Amino acid sequence: MKKPLMYILLTLVVLLSGCVSTVTPVDPSDITISAAPIQMKEFQEKEISVNVMNNATSPIDSVSVKSLEPFTVLSGGNVNIPAREDQPSTVLLSAKIQAPGFKDVTGTTTLTVSYDSGKDSKGNLITKTKSIPVNTIVLPDAKLQFVGFVKDINSISEAEVTTWEASAGDNVTITFSIKNDGRSTIDENTLKVFVDVDNKRMGTNNSLTIGNAMAKGGTSNTLPLQVQVLKNAPNGETDVFVTLMMGDKVIDSKTIKLKVKL
Q1: Which of 18, 65, 109, 218 has the maximum number of C-beta atoms within 10 A of its C-beta?
Q2: pLDDT tens digits, one per residue of 232-249
Q3: Selecting from 2.170.150.70, 3.10.105.10, 2.60.40.10, 3.40.1000.10, what CATH number does the domain 142-261 have?
């Protein structure tokens, strides 16, 4: 009778020694993540910060930014976050991303953070994820060039200057062109240039929609915009801002100077 009992006990010892108890992972509902809206030019790189808060009574490990489609995550931090005590535990997680083409982003992308927590029946770490929507804007990689004043609208092929002297009531001509430094083609009527006279007592504003399409390395025509010096403008000087925009987003801006003489 003793031998069968001994065999049973030995069998139980062997079975028990091969068992690994599971550890329940921290649920994603106990993790809060947040990130500021992202705005950048296409295919450029940028460092972003993600706030991660652990509200669970267990720690989470190897916390990192897993994805931000269609952006590319180039590198990033990898941190451990302790369990909450009186307050949730919070860290700031960094990551370097690269933007896609400006036509590939619709306004909101999904940011996913991964973390290790708990163990399965084989003793392996369990990886969980938490995702949130992030507002993202990708702009064409375009720039203003050859911005300045010329004598009149028939002189746009002449060299421009960045300071101009005019009299009250004069029309002032500003010229510029646009270059596409990005990879994506910029379609017709995608961009707009605004001319804004800083001192509203001195001159009017104006704008122009860019009718040229520009492939990689392409440029627009040299284009003119006129603003009028007001008839009752005070003498002195003011900045004139020339701004390239897509919708309500600024892509590039230059400042030139207008002087009004007596």
Answers
A1: 65
A2: 999 999 999 999 999 999
A3: 2.60.40.10
